[in-house]
TrEMBL record:
Domain of life per record: Eukaryota
Protein name (database record): CD63 antigen
Length: 224
């Protein structure tokens, strides 16, 4: 079971890293509060991994003190995980405004952005089949004539397909990316919250087993 906890710790580290990359690279969310939950997950994952190793040593040596410390530390980690789940739920409520600000900044920096930045924006629009923040009209400053959008807004992406086609619903997606990005992030955050709660439950089982082991060790001491 302790080895399983180590796997849970590694799982939290991987999930935390993926969420962090997704928020700040794939979706380019700039709000600092967005990093709170993934950073906590990574930190908790690292701590769980080493606590599980500590518990494994304690169980192997049947050391009452080490097992007790294992149970106490695991209890503290559960509290942190529950707090992270609550923080994730709270962040979901402010997600709409965070996405709005991040996508607006994304569009304003597009023309002067690096090739990598533009590729990220284009991939986002192509994958989600959207254009702009709330509509294709958000790209009005993309070209001087105010009627063009990046080619990634096109339903059939070809070179210069976005030139002069901003309001052409047959060629360009008219719906913005805001709702699609918000829905996708909410879904991802929901899975993170569920994962944190499931692992917290498994850790509670670990505490129960630790208490049973402590009781067995104490009984052994009393017999001696």
């Amino acid at each position: 079971f302790v080895s399983f906890l180590q796997l849970c710790g590694l799982a939290l580290i991987v999930v935390g890293i993926l969420v962090q990359i997704g928020l700040h690279k794939s979706f380019m969310i700039k709000d600092a509060s967005a990093s709170g939950v993934p950073i906590v997950l990574i930190g908790v994952g690292v701590v769980i991994f080493f606590i599980a190793f500590f518990g494994c040593c304690g169980a192997w040596k049947e050391n009452y003190c080490m097992i007790t410390t294992f149970a106490v530390l695991l209890s503290l980690i559960i509290i942190v995980e529950i707090a992270a789940a609550i923080a994730g739920y709270i962040f979901r409520s402010k997600l709409s405004s965070v996405v709005q600000d991040s996508l607006t900044e994304m569009i304003s920096k597009y023309n002067n952005g690096t090739a990598e930045f533009k590729d990220t924006v284009n991939k986002l629009q192509e994958d989600l089949k959207c254009c702009g923040v709330n509509s294709s009209l958000d790209w009005k400053h993309f070209k001087p004539e105010g009627n063009s959008v990046p080619d990634s807004c096109c339903k059939n992406v070809t070179t210069n397909c976005g030139i002069g086609t901003m309001t052409d619903a047959a060629k360009v997606y008219q719906k913005g990316c805001h709702d699609a990005v918000e829905a996708l992030l909410k879904k991802n955050i929901q899975w993170v919250i569920v994962a944190a709660l499931v692992i917290a439950f498994l850790q509670i089982m670990g505490i129960v087993f630790a208490c049973l082991l402590m009781r067995g060790i104490r009984s052994g001491y009393e017999v001696m």
